[in-house]
TrEMBL record:
UniProt family annotation: Belongs to the ABC-2 integral membrane protein family.
Pfam families: ABC2_membrane
Protein name: Transport permease protein
Residue span, ABC transmembrane type-2 domain: 44-283
Top-level taxonomy: Bacteria, Bacillati, Actinomycetota, Actinomycetes, Micrococcales
Membrane topology summary: Multi-pass membrane protein
InterPro entries: ABC2_TM, ABC2_TM_bact-type, ABC_2_transport, Nod_factor_ABC_transporter
Chief location bin: membrane
Ranges that cross the membrane: 45-65, 85-105, 126-151, 163-184, 196-218, 256-277
Length: 288
């Protein structure tokens, strides 16, 4: 066959444009749909993600009944005081922990290697994870707020400024947790060890970040360590929304420090992005 004949055979029909892949935004939503279906099929994981903050709030509210007192004799019961911490730890569970473990498992079972061989852009894969995390965090938080309001009579904020603060702390905290989860996903050596590596990190941060115990009551060295990590600041930002202003005096520096909340969460968002780009692997260490 001559070169002219080869060119003629290879050329697409006249008037027909070559097929193009959908845009990154469309592929991200498609991938998010796949992630959501896979998540819903894991019923035990669904129950754990949604029930864990609610169960912990119920347990601690039942065991502890001492009110937290601020300036001018203002008191709040345990459920109200620790609701912000439960919201923060729920975001951390659905973001950092879930993503770090799921990516490690998908790398171990060959899912990432197969996806890498497809035209799916890496940004769409990670975007699907972030969209799933955001959707799950919203549903989880709505469930927790409903239980707190209906079962424990926790008053909800009435000021639009408080809800605006809640929106940016929630969004920034969710994005930070998700990105850090991607960065940390390369630490476990296998999918089997992922839970054993990731879960203790989250548990330790919960105990030192004012989630299960009042942050001001923790030892000074523990407060210093917790202040390095995002969960402490995420919980503090949520306390500024759900607690009365009189309890601000209980915080370190007697302030909600919302500027520091934004700065630390943003810094960890950047750190997570850098670590994710530099350390993320599509294959296992022993897979070449």
């Amino acid at each position: 066959m001559s070169a002219v004949q080869q060119a003629t055979v290879a050329a697409p029909p006249r008037g027909r444009r070559p097929d193009r892949l959908p845009g990154v935004g469309t592929l991200t939503l498609v991938r998010a749909g796949v992630e959501l279906r896979q998540f819903l099929r894991e019923r035990d994981a669904v129950i754990f993600v949604f029930a864990y903050p609610v169960i912990m709030l119920a347990i601690f509210s039942t065991v502890f009944s001492d009110a937290q007192q601020g300036a001018e004799g203002v008191e709040v019961d345990f459920a109200r005081y620790f609701l912000p911490g439960m919201i923060a730890t729920g975001i951390m569970l659905t973001g950092f922990q879930s993503i770090a473990i799921s990516i490690a498992v998908e790398r171990d079972d060959g899912t990432l290697r197969r996806l890498r061989a497809t035209p799916l852009p890496a940004t769409a894969y990670f975007g699907g994870k972030v969209v799933l995390t955001l959707a799950t965090s919203v549903a989880q938080t709505v469930t927790l707020l409903a239980v707190a309001a209906l079962v424990y009579d926790v008053p909800m904020p009435t000021d639009a400024a408080d809800w605006a603060t809640f929106a940016w702390v929630f969004t920034l905290g969710t994005a930070t947790g998700a990105v850090c989860g991607v960065g940390f996903s390369s630490v476990p050596r296998s999918g089997r060890s992922a839970s054993a590596v990731v879960t203790p990190v989250v548990l330790i941060l919960q105990f030192i970040s004012g989630v299960f115990f009042a942050f001001y009551a923790l030892p000074g060295w523990m407060q210093t360590v917790a202040s390095v990590f995002p969960l402490k600041w995420l919980a503090q930002g949520m306390r500024s929304v759900f607690l009365p202003p009189e309890l601000e005096i209980l915080e370190v520096g007697e302030s909600w420090q919302l500027g520091a909340v934004a700065a630390v969460l943003t810094a960890w968002l950047v750190v997570g992005l850098v670590l994710g780009v530099r350390s993320f692997r599509w294959r296992r260490r022993d897979d070449g």
